[in-house]
Description:
Order of helices and strands: EEEEEHEEEEEE
Number of helices: 1
Shape: globular
Strand order of the largest sheet: 8-7-10-11
Largest sheet: 4 strands, antiparallel
CATH superfamily of the largest domain: C2 domain
Number of strands: 11
Strand content: 35-45%
Distance between the termini: 40 Å
Number of domains: 2
Structural class: mainly beta
CATH architecture of the largest domain: Sandwich
Amino acid sequence: xxxxxxxxxxxxxxxxxxxxxxxxxxxxxxxxxxxxxxxxxxxxxxxxxxxxxxxxxxxxxxxxxxxxxxxxxxxxxxxxxxxxxxxxxxxxxxxxxxxxxxxxxxxxxxxxxxxxxxxxxxxxxxxxxxxxxxxxxxxxxxxxxxxxxxxxxxxxxxxxxxxxxxxxxxxxxxxxxxxxxxxxxxxxxxxxxxxxxxxxxxxx
Length: 204
């Protein structure tokens, strides 16, 4: 019930290659569970923003009244990575020792926002649902922790995909839940849901 909403949410997006990327933002209005209406779209060219500083942007919504006020900072990724099983970060004894020392008891209060380190090895899925007419699926896996999201590559035409990827996350809240979702890639259409598991960090 507001024409001037304030969300005050922070989202982290990770880029691991020098590619040209656009940040696409959509604003929706929801009347009830069934009815939604698009209120506008805006785009931000990430490569055009100055690095290592917070950029305050007021973005007009295309073809609709109103604008979005956003703070966008482009900075090097720290503590987040995607790697293959053979070169996973904790596989290096020196790096494992550095991480153990970083999170030892005597350093507990050095940085209150940096409270831990999570490494997830996504090996494979078994007996997935067939989402295509061919009796196969094109599955990929999405990992979400807080507002961080990383994903695997797509394995095409396979109900038993093997990804063999290692994901690392910095932990900002020990009460967060790791959500792992498997989707079927469907070209230009939204991906189909194939399954999900939720793992509270406190249970690890």
